[in-house]
Write a structure and sequence with these properties.
Elements (H helix, E strand, L loop, with lengths): L5 E3 L5 E3 L4 E2 L4 E3 L6 E3 L4 E2 L4 E3 L2 E2 L4 E2 L4 E2 L4 E2 L4 E2 L4 E2 L4 E2 L3 E5 L2 E6 L2 H24 L32
Length: about 160
């Protein structure tokens, strides 16, 4: 789960199956006697909202998309960024849906699916790497004198009064 994600299972259950991922600032909510389920390898993009729905195996919900009550997203389906999936929508497997309201625009190609699988693998590996590197630390009581900063390539010209090391 990414930073800022909110999971509200106060009415029903939230189920995240094996190697599903939920990115930064997502909101997942359940309804009375209604669960929200992300099946195996489901990939939920930054800022998406899932409101007691089901996301199929190996599906992708794009950034800032909304999937409403009782909607079902088929397996290997992509919901494009900023799309709105209506209450009760039944989205078939293997398609791209986009818009507000979301509608099927085409079947997915093998290249589309390969790109989605790569993205999911990257997030699974990121989670493993983060867990492997976690160490307990004490908070600093003050900023360390001379603490090094991360160096980044400067892609824009700095202001004339600012020196970049």
């Amino acid at each position: 789960m990414g930073p800022g994600a909110v999971l509200r299972g106060d009415f029903g259950r939230i189920v995240m199956e094996r190697e599903s991922n939920l990115q930064d600032n997502c909101v997942v909510h359940t309804g009375p006697d209604h669960d929200t389920v992300m099946e195996e390898h489901a990939h939920i993009g930054h800022g998406a909202v899932l409101h007691y729905c089901r996301i199929g195996r190996d599906a992708l919900v794009g950034m800032n998309a909304v999937v409403m009550d009782d909607a079902v997203i088929g397996e290997r389906t992509i919901v494009a960024a900023m799309s709105f999936v209506r209450i009760g929508a039944q989205i078939p497997a293997g398609v791209l849906v986009t818009g507000a309201p979301a509608r099927v625009v085409r079947e997915l190609t093998e290249a589309d699916l390969a790109g989605k699988r790569l993205g999911t693998r990257l997030y699974v590996e990121l989670a493993r790497r983060c867990l492997a590197g976690l160490e307990p630390v004490a908070p600093l009581p003050a900023v360390e004198a001379g603490r090094r900063r991360t160096h980044w390539e400067v892609l824009v010209r700095p202001a004339p009064d600012r020196q970049i090391p």
